[in-house]
Amino acid sequence: MPAHPTHLEPAEALRSDARHNRERILDAAREAFATRGLDVPMAAIARRAGVGVATLYRRFPSRESLITEVFEDELAACASLVDEALADPDPWRGFRTAIEKVCAMQVADRGFTDAFLTAFPAAIDYERTRARAEQGFAEVVRRAKAAGRLRPDFDLADLTLLLKANCGVSTGTGDVAAASSRRLVAYLLQSFQAEHAAPLPPAPPLTLSHIHAAPAAR
Q1: Which residues bind DNA (predicted)?
Q2: Which one of 3, 49, 145, 155 has the lowest number of neighbouring Cβ atoms within 10 Å?
Q3: 189 pLDDT exceeds 80?
Q4: The pLDDT of residue 54
Q5: Cα–Cα separations (whole angstroms), residue 80 to 59, 74, 85, 87, 106
Q6: In the CATH scheme, what architecture does the domain 72-196 have?
């Protein structure tokens, strides 16, 4: 008897009903992660999708595999934003625009921050894209500093702090969350400029990749 297809096989190889279940699970997970974050139990996602837990695990054998599939497009979009920043001839404008757009993505999806900041060692393609985004942002930072626009003591850990702070104000709803985020980001971007570079306490020992442990399966 042929092996049951898994989420790693091309979608067109799945039977029609299995493919439909897979898409329902992904849609349910996107909605759940966006509104409740990554800690939503797998059983709750299965209920939202209208499938059994066993069906969910046949398609996505781990929480990690489901999360990385759900956020693959968002991560690719984030990496593209960094590429656009690198292509901008104005280093400060590139830095500022990348920060503004990533924070706007974060407001739209509560799960995005944890998905971006969590390491998923088994998801090789996902990790490769995230590493490209991180390395690209490090170069955006270097260029903005070299242009004399970004304060010299800005640390990559400060991006983690910014995202976590923005996550806090984005817990409101609709226009309120978006407006709160824009105002916070505007304040922070002003403080990042070199002309406002009063001495700061040391940066905390945070990294973009490993501030969180990988989510445990539920």
Answers
A1: 41-60
A2: 3
A3: yes
A4: 93
A5: 28, 10, 9, 10, 15
A6: Orthogonal Bundle (1.10)
